[in-house]
């Protein structure tokens, strides 16, 4: 797993966490919706922030691939490789 | 899609339709008008002896023109019906109120799209009075999803 992407992604996710979720609890296996309680509209904000931060484009049908932190990192990694 | 068709596709009806007409629309912006008639029920209680249009109603009007009408236009090539199978939901708004709107005032709402992606539409929306003064402005977003109502 790419540590650099991981730490950047954590910083992107943090502002969208509900108050009752500790930012320290973010782990690679965390499911964004089920574990981190991020609502679906904030998921859109996270995707847009990810696009800006990594200068990549995530297609509409790829949103559902970003279900866990690790899966999101894999998708970002793949996008960076094919850029 | 004509301006009239946009209004016809709105999923609202009296007493909660706050769009009289759309006057301009493009892929990036929309402009529309509404007149708050003095017969509206809420003026009886907001406020007693001093009718002023409630801020929440101004926001509703801004959302109906600035988000929902614009979304209907942007999705015009997709065959969908907001009155049956689609979802409309407000997500957030940051609004600043600058002037009151009294009964029988005509307002214009202007909305400039920031993005419409993954069913989320975000826009900078302004409401102006007949004198052209900004009465309310803010950043609004909502979900507009054609197709099956479950998300």
From TrEMBL, chain A:
<keyword id="KW-0443">Lipid metabolism</keyword>
<keyword id="KW-0597">Phosphoprotein</keyword>
<comment type="similarity">
    <text>Belongs to the acyl carrier protein (ACP) family.</text>
</comment>
<dbReference type="InterPro" id="IPR009081">
    <property type="entry name" value="PP-bd_ACP"/>
</dbReference>
<keyword id="KW-0444">Lipid biosynthesis</keyword>
<feature type="domain" description="Carrier">
    <location>
        <begin position="3"/>
        <end position="80"/>
    </location>
</feature>
<comment type="function">
    <text>Carrier of the growing fatty acid chain in fatty acid biosynthesis.</text>
</comment>
<comment type="pathway">
    <text>Lipid metabolism; fatty acid biosynthesis.</text>
</comment>
<keyword id="KW-0596">Phosphopantetheine</keyword>
<dbReference type="InterPro" id="IPR003231">
    <property type="entry name" value="ACP"/>
</dbReference>
<keyword id="KW-0275">Fatty acid biosynthesis</keyword>
<feature type="modified residue" description="O-(pantetheine 4'-phosphoryl)serine">
    <location>
        <position position="40"/>
    </location>
</feature>
<keyword id="KW-0276">Fatty acid metabolism</keyword>
<dbReference type="Pfam" id="PF00550">
    <property type="entry name" value="PP-binding"/>
</dbReference>
<protein>
    <recommendedName>
        <fullName>Acyl carrier protein</fullName>
    </recommendedName>
</protein>
<keyword id="KW-0963">Cytoplasm</keyword>
<dbReference type="InterPro" id="IPR036736">
    <property type="entry name" value="ACP-like_sf"/>
</dbReference>
Automatic annotation (TrEMBL), chain B:
<keyword id="KW-0812">Transmembrane</keyword>
<keyword id="KW-1133">Transmembrane helix</keyword>
<feature type="transmembrane region" description="Helical">
    <location>
        <begin position="55"/>
        <end position="75"/>
    </location>
</feature>
<keyword id="KW-0456">Lyase</keyword>
<dbReference type="InterPro" id="IPR029069">
    <property type="entry name" value="HotDog_dom_sf"/>
</dbReference>
<protein>
    <submittedName>
        <fullName>Hydroxymyristoyl-ACP dehydratase</fullName>
    </submittedName>
</protein>
<dbReference type="Pfam" id="PF07977">
    <property type="entry name" value="FabA"/>
</dbReference>
<dbReference type="InterPro" id="IPR013114">
    <property type="entry name" value="FabA_FabZ"/>
</dbReference>
<keyword id="KW-0472">Membrane</keyword>
């Amino acid at each position: 797993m790419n540590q650099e992407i991981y730490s950047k992604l954590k910083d992107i996710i943090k502002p969208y966490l509900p108050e009752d979720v500790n930012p320290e609890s973010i782990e690679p296996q965390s499911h964004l919706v089920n574990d981190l309680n991020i609502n679906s509209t904030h998921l859109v904000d996270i995707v847009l922030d990810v696009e800006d931060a990594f200068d990549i484009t995530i297609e509409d049908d790829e949103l559902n691939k970003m279900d866990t932190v690790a899966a999101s990192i894999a998708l970002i990694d793949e996008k960076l490789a094919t850029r | 899609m004509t301006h009239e068709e946009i209004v016809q596709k709105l999923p609202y009806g009296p007493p909660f339709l706050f769009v009289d007409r759309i006057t301009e629309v493009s892929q990036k912006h929309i402009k529309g008008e509404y007149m708050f008639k003095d017969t509206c029920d809420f003026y009886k209680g907001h406020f007693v002896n001093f009718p002023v249009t409630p801020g929440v109603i101004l926001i509703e009007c801004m959302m109906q023109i600035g988000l929902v009408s614009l979304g209907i236009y942007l999705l015009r090539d997709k065959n969908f019906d907001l009155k049956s199978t689609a979802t409309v939901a407000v997500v957030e708004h940051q609004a600043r109120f600058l002037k009151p709107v009294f009964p029988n005032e005509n307002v214009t709402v202007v909305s400039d799209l920031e993005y419409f992606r993954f069913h989320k539409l975000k826009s900078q929306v302004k409401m102006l009075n007949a004198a052209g003064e900004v009465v309310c402005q803010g950043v609004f977003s909502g979900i507009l999803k054609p197709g099956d109502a479950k998300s």
